[in-house]
Amino acid sequence: MYHRAQWFRHTDEMFSLREPPQWDGDSPDIYVTIVGIAHCQPAMRHEIFAQRYNLHVIREGKFRILIDGNEYLLQSGDLFILFPGQHAELHGPEDQYASYLWLAFDGKKVDWALAGANLTRRNQVLAAGTDYNALLCPLHERLQNTYRDDIIARMLPVSAAWEILNAISSTEQISRLPADIADAARFLLEESCTTGLSIEDIARTLRISRSTLYRQFIRRFGISPKAYQEKRRLEYACELLKRTRSTVAEVVYMCGFQSPAYFSRIFRKHFGLSPKRWLAAQQKRK
Q1: Residues 194, 255: contact at Cβ < 8 Å?
Q2: What is the pLDDT of residues 192-226, one digit of tens each?
Q3: Distance from C-alpha of 179 to C-alpha of 206, rounded to nearest angstrom
Q4: What range does the domain containing 275 cover?
Q5: Of the residues 169, 200, 222, which one is the last residue of a structural domain?
Q6: Is 155 in the same domain as 221?
Q7: Which helix (H) or strand (E) segment is 211 a member of?
Q8: What pTM did the predictor assign?
């Protein structure tokens, strides 16, 4: 299905699925839902509120991008990811036209799949010299043409999503896991603050049982994997509350907590204050 949207100095052409692919009555782990290309006139300024996981690749020109208070200067071939609920502000070049490609992902394990391509909330921009524009343009064009014709093979959105992420991850120097199981688990738990990895996912990744993971982790660090994960997520939540304009509800989602009520309960247990009162106290100290 084709959509065209226009804002001030910004035109977006989008091709989307009429309905998500199903496999035995269930949705896949990850699949592409929308393929888009944005054309930007000089001095363009555009705000994005991501409802899905949106991957952007700069096609031509240079952009200044603000994500959660962090500023990035990107050029042709660079890419960045936005997670659901995130706001971003894009500023195009003052004296030339620019454009970018983008894809929206959905599915049950998008966080986990993106983490495999080294894309997390702490690493949202890949601008290390690899020309992602040249790497992903052929895949983007193939998807766009297929979505335009509205003749979509059942599993194409799924295979294309994995093909895109595999292409990205093959160019990235992703750290190898430590040989020691406890150290490897701690490494993955650090990443789970933003990727949504569960303790069970980590055990499967390390090819050990959940009980073995708990036993070795406690023996090494004196704390259970679950308690360590909760502690790190709370620390990351505090960082987001202080450093960004994110609401408590947004932080709950971004840090992988089950619900706002659960987050408030463990936050109060850990700090002795509700999240809002804790933030107010931090602001008074400035």
Answers
A1: yes
A2: 666 667 788 788 777 788 898 999 999 999 999 99
A3: 10
A4: 181-284
A5: 169
A6: no
A7: helix 210-221
A8: 0.58
